[in-house]
Write a structure and sequence with these properties.
Length: 456
């Protein structure tokens, strides 16, 4: 069927406040052109992130009412732990309030200054937590993943040969662990194949290194494996998920993505020497190990959401929605990352705005224009986010992208038709757009709170 039918019915609605171009210009100027600083009720279609923005189901809301708020030993924790372990069979499951807390705990415990963490591509908070510990974040994705126009079924893959050479050159003693991000968010939401996960683990095993998965979009990655990797067509998504994690020694997780909740996460691992240190640090910063900064009702909502996240009818609808937008933009000649990823449309800002050099942030310029013209909030993922180096210098990122992250079970096809119309109309007048510059920036994660102005 060509018509996308949402595999759910809508029980509750939230009004969208319509705004005019004049109002939006006032709003964006008032926050120095930083889309993160906008009030959300000044946004028509909010595609800033798919993190924590999902709509919860009736089953999840029912689970909320089961939440037990005991400080220690809550049954909500044990339901949460069982649901996680059903898909990710690690020995120790440590809840946190979100994924970056799991990253902070992990790198504080296992890392030391001067060490290096290799990854296919670190996302912003992962990189920041690595660098905050005095370590270096190394990105070792395959070459195809650096070219938006190139078609490849698994552009999120780790370059396994490069990883092996990197470990030999750096020395395994200087690498506490290796990570692989599924799906590869900074690389355009692109999946990682099972073969690549397996081969990455083999390299790590040869060098005596543990492999951790940044698992935020594990279900979408598993669905891509089912669709695209030979030998997995008849396997169920839960079975594929379990096989993915069987090759890992642990994972960090933001439950605000695939598990369909608004808050939560966890750190999972097998290392008995690390777990007590991690739990002690958790108590210091998050809470007792059976709640980890979450209410019992949040833990129960995650347990219910994990079951829904691996439902193949839902995943089929999710991917069809992405394809719907991507196919129409591609047909109109809009430069974007191809093939489409699992959680977002990634516009190729360099291809979209060739007149703007990378150090003038074409992605930020495009994201601002989408808001001004149509009230759509998106997110730059490029030189503005990643260009600043540890020594204070600035280099162009490997790509300049604008991510339109689609919240799960929130928007309908008519909303997506509106998004397509806005992008196409901005594309028609793209030659008039100007570059941008920072007028102020913090020392780290500058894209969240920095201030911008147009380049004269």
């Amino acid at each position: 069927m060509k018509t996308i039918i949402e595999p759910f019915r809508i029980k509750s609605v939230e009004p969208i406040r319509m705004t005019t171009h004049k109002e939006r210009r006032h709003h964006i100027e008032a926050v120095d052109y930083n889309l993160f600083a906008l009030h959300s009720d000044h946004v028509l279609i909010d595609l800033l992130t798919d993190s924590g923005t999902s709509s919860m189901s009736s089953a999840q809301w029912a689970a909320v009412m089961l939440g037990d708020e005991s400080y220690a030993g809550s049954p909500s924790f044990y339901r949460f732990e069982a649901a996680v372990r059903e898909l990710m069979p690690f020995r120790y499951i440590i809840p946190t309030h979100q994924g970056r807390a799991a990253e902070k705990i992990l790198f504080t415990v296992v890392g030391r200054e001067g060490q290096v963490i290799p990854n296919n591509t670190h996302f912003d908070t992962t990189r920041a937590n690595v660098e905050a510990r005095g370590m270096t974040a190394a990105d070792l994705g395959i070459e195809e993943g650096k070219h938006p126009e190139v078609e490849h079924p698994f552009k999120g893959n780790m370059d396994v040969e490069k990883l092996d050479a990197f470990i030999r050159e750096t020395g395994p003693e200087n690498i506490p662990l290796c990570m692989i991000t599924v799906t590869n968010n900074s690389g355009g939401g692109q999946p990682v194949s099972m073969e690549n996960i397996r081969r990455t683990k083999e390299v790590c095993r040869r060098h005596g290194l543990p492999l951790f998965i940044d698992a935020c979009r594990f279900a979408e990655n598993a669905y891509f494996i089912k669709m695209r990797e030979p030998g997995y067509e008849e396997k169920t998504v839960p079975d594929i998920v379990r096989e993915m994690f069987s090759h890992a020694d642990g994972c960090t997780m933001s439950a605000k993505k695939d598990p369909l909740v608004n808050i939560g996460g966890w750190l999972a691992l097998n290392n008995e020497e690390w777990v007590d240190q991690c739990r002690n640090f958790l108590i210091l910063t998050e809470g007792f190990p059976t709640y980890g900064g979450l209410a019992g009702r949040d833990l129960d909502a995650i347990a219910a959401g994990l079951r829904e996240a691996v439902d193949e009818e839902y995943l089929r609808y999710r991917y069809a929605s992405m394809r719907y937008v991507a196919d129409r933009l591609t047909a109109a000649g809009v430069p974007m990352v191809r093939p489409v990823g699992g959680h977002a449309i990634f516009l190729d800002a360099r291809g979209f705005l060739p007149q703007i050099p990378p150090l003038h942030y074409p992605g930020q310029s495009l994201a601002v224009e989408l808001y001004l013209y149509g009230g759509i909030r998106s997110c730059e993922i490029g030189t503005s986010m990643f260009g600043k180096q540890a020594d204070g210098s600035e280099q162009p990122a490997s790509m300049d992208l604008v991510r339109l992250a689609i919240p799960r079970r929130v928007y309908t096809q008519s909303h997506m038709d509106y998004v397509i119309e806005v992008i196409l109309e901005v594309f028609e007048r793209r030659a008039s757009l100007k570059g941008m510059r920072y007028t102020w920036q913090p020392p780290a994660l500058r894209h969240f709170t920095g201030k911008f102005a147009y380049v004269d």
